[in-house]
Amino acid sequence: MKRIFSAFFMLAVLAGCGSDDSATANEPVVIFPEPQPDPETPPAVLVPVITQYQGYTLLWNDEFEGTALDPTKWVYETGTGVNGDFGTGQLDRATDRPENVSFLAPTATTEGALAITTRKETYMDRNYTSGRINTNTKFSAGPGTRIEARIWARDVKYKGQGFAFWMMPAEKPADQPYIMWPQGGEIDVMEYVGAIPYANLGSVHYAWFWENNQFQSWNHGHMGAYYNYAEQQKPNTDPQFGGWPVADNTPNTGSGGYHLYRIDWYMDRIEFSIDEHVYHINYMNDGAALGNTPDGEDAKSTVSINGKNVMKSEYTNHFNEWKPFEHKFYFILSAGVGGNDTYSYGGAIVPSAVFPCTTLVDYIRVYNRN
Question: What is the pTM for the complete model shown?
Fold first, then answer.
C-alpha cells in the first residue's frame, strides 16, 4: 500500500554470521543457512513517522495503531440520533460493537488502521448498523490549525453508502445553554458517497440569522465544493449521481486507495484540500472572497489558482451573537446508509449494494500554525 504523504521506516530484526577477515581463496567457504525467525517473536511492523511541516507543530494525533479505541481521545456515539435518523434520513443504527468499529493490526508491509463498517443486518429496530465516534469533551481545534486525515473509503461503492470526517462546535456562547445547529456551524472535511465515486465534497454549514439560537428549517446556509480526484481540482461542472459501482482499486476515486483530506484553518478563512491540492476556500466575512464591496449576500465563484480550479465562497459571520468558525470544533468519524434521494446526501440505498462496507482511517493529525 503506497504511503503518499508520510515517510515510514521498518524496525527489522537482523541476524547474521561473522566472517574471518583472514580467510583466503584457498580456504573453504562455509555457507550457513539463513537464521529462521523465532516463532515466539512477533514480526517487525511498520512504525509511523509523523510528518513535520515547516511552520507547524504537532498538537494532537491518533495513528490508530492499537487494538481498541483510545478512551482518552474518542467516545462512541450510538443510536439513531435525536430524530431517529441522525438528521440526514439515514437508516442505520450506530453501535459500539467491534462489528462496526475495529482495528487492522500493523504488519511488516501495512500500517495499522481504524476500520468503520456499515452492515446489512437486523439489529434492535434497524436493518443496518454503522460505526460513529467523536472527540466531544476529549479534544477540539479551531483557527490556527492544520487538520488532516488519511482515509480510504475502500468499500463505499454503491448509491446509499457514505463516509464522513466532519466537525461540530465544541464551544457555545456564555449566556446560552447550548448552541443550535446550524448557528454553531459545521465543517465537512471529507464527505464521500458511493453515488458520486469520482469526487469528494468539502463544505461549511452555517445560519443566516441568529433567530434567538432556535432552529428554523429555512435558516441554513451551505457552501460546498467538489474535488475531482482525476483532475485534482474543483470540476467545471458539479457531478451528479452515476458511475457506480466502481471496481476494486479504481484509480481517481475515494474507494481506490488512501487520500489525504485536510483543512488549513485561519482566522478569516478555511482552505480545503485533498492530496495537498486546494479546491475550496471559504471566507468568514462579507466581501472577503472575491474582493467585492460587502453587500450582505453570500457569494461564490470558481477562480484559477496556480492553474487549478478553486471555489472561493463567503460568508459565515452573518450575525454578531456568534461567529461560528472563530471557535473550536470537535471531530466526528461516521459511516451511514441513506434512506432517500432528497434528504440523505448520497441518496437512498440500492438493493444491489454490497455489505459489509468498510472505510479505513490510517491517522488523524492536528498541527498548530507557528
Answer: 0.88
